[in-house]
């Protein structure tokens, strides 16, 4: 049985968010474990540049509407030249052309990674992408896997939950050092203590609930509030206006987007994630931050959206509250800050959970198992000796 694979990843995304970090970190793991990786992405994007600098084979692809026909032809050529065992597409636009091109070029295993299920509809074209052109669907959470299985009437052996995972590190900044560094960065007194929250610029990030909860308890604690990941510009101005209306602007700060958020999490006494569901789907941008905070031994409190409750077990690895329930959230924050022994038990359990199931190493091993499962299925269908052949 083949022990090493050649994998092509495609994405039309141009930023450096959870999706791009996942592709890069997974690719690095695969490379270190003897597999070959090829990245197809828009030229000049952070992923393209980082992949090229690392030493991966890269192909520039615009994935713009005007260039789709040329992109389709170029992808066929790439697949025929590269001869990959696996194609993994990560964006809706690139999936439209990369999956048909891979079928045309006889790529044996075709995977559609669905990072955002909120906007997927059961249209005839999506059914073609998800049921005909893809051998497997990868989602990032259990709830998303269940949703995709029900939406397209897929078998459980066709849809897999492969959670976003983080690189492990045994060297973390001591909490007290991290807290003082954070205070210095934010221009606060060195003795200041902090409560953090993740607030991507979306209308369902729960920032209103967090501000309300902090307002209710600010007279009982000395902590300041820190927004992690808030984009600059109009969003920051809007959040500051909201903080002023809530009467907490003097103790509210913005850490912004940073390459490494772990020192920030290490310097906080608590991290809150409060996204609210839209159309039955939670915010897709909080899971990476949740895992990072848990790995950094930062106590976590999350709203009861499916993505977060897939990870947090209430009372064991963190605390959960109903989205938009500011009063209950404020009680949980006080409980976290005041009940040190119980909080320590939760953070130890949370870090162990991430270490065992949500590191890049754990994710990589799970993905390789699926590749080998596909290889076995193909051998059975095509006969022994037809190693890893395509199937419909």
Instruction: Give the domain tally.
Output: 2
Major sheet, described briefly? 7 strands, parallel
CATH homologous group name of the largest domain:
Glycogen Phosphorylase B
* CATH fold-level topology of the largest domain: Rossmann fold
- Strand arrangement, largest sheet? 3-2-1-4-5-6-7
Number of helices: 15
Tally of strands: 13
User: Roughly how many Å apart are the termini?
Assistant: 21 Å
Low-pLDDT segments, ≥5 res: 383-387
Oligomer: single chain
Instruction: Just give the CATH class of the largest domain.
Output: Alpha Beta
Radius of gyration: 22 Å
Shape, per Cα inertia axes: elongated
Give the SSE order as H and E letters: EHEHEHEHEHEHEHEHEHEHEHEHEHHH
Which features characterize this protein?
392 residues, alpha/beta, Rossmann fold, 2 domains, seven-stranded parallel sheet, six-stranded parallel sheet, 15 helices, 46% helix, elongated
Model description:
- This protein is α/β, with parallel strands linked by helices and 392 residues long.
- Helix content is 46%, strand content 15%.
- The protein contains 15 helices and 13 strands.
- The protein has helices at 18-32, 46-54, 68-82, 92-104, 124-133, 142-152, 175-186, 207-217, 234-246, 262-266, 287-295, 306-309, 326-338, 340-357, 360-382; strands spanning 6-10, 36-41, 57-60, 86-89, 109-114, 136-139, 159-161, 194-198, 224-228, 252-256, 270-273, 300-303, 319-321.
- 43% of the residues are buried.
């Amino acid at each position: 049985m083949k022990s090493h694979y050649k994998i092509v990843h495609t994405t039309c995304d141009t930023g450096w968010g959870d999706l791009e970090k996942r592709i890069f970190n997974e690719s690095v793991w695969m490379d270190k474990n003897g597999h070959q990786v090829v990245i197809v992405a828009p030229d000049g994007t952070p992923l393209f540049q980082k992949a090229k600098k690392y030493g991966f084979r890269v192909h520039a692809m615009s994935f713009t509407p005007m260039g789709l026909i040329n992109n389709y032809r170029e992808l066929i050529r790439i697949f025929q030249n590269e001869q990959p065992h696996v194609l993994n597409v990560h964006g809706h636009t690139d999936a439209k052309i990369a999956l048909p091109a891979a079928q045309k070029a006889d790529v044996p295993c075709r995977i559609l990674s669905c990072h955002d299920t909120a906007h997927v509809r059961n249209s005839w074209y999506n059914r073609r992408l998800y049921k005909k052109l893809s051998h497997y669907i990868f989602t990032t959470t259990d709830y998303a896997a269940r949703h995709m299985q029900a939406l397209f009437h897929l078998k459980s052996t066709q849809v897999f939950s492969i959670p976003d995972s983080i690189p492990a590190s045994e060297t973390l900044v001591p909490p007290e050092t991290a807290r003082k560094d954070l205070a210095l960065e934010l221009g606060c007194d060195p003795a200041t203590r902090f409560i953090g929250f993740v607030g991507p610029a979306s209308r369902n990030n729960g920032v209103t609930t967090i501000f309300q909860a902090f307002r209710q308890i600010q007279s009982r604690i000395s902590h300041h509030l820190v927004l992690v990941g808030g984009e600059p510009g109009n969003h920051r101005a809007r959040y500051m206006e909201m903080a002023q209306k809530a009467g907490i602007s003097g103790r509210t700060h913005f850490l912004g987007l940073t390459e490494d958020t772990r020192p920030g999490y290490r310097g906080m006494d608590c991290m809150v994630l409060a996204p609210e569901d839209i159309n039955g789907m939670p915010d897709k941008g909080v899971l990476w931050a949740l895992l990072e905070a848990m790995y950094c031994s930062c106590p976590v409190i999350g709203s009861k959206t499916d993505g977060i409750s897939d990870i947090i077990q209430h009372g064991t690895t963190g605390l959960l509250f109903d989205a938009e329930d500011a009063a209950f959230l404020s009680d949980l924050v006080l409980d976290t800050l005041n009940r040190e022994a119980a909080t320590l038990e939760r953070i130890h359990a949370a870090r162990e959970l991430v270490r065992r199931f949500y590191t890049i190493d754990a994710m990589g091993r799970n993905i390789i198992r699926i590749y080998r499962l596909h290889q076995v299925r193909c051998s059975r269908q095509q006969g022994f000796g037809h190693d890893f052949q395509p199937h419909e």
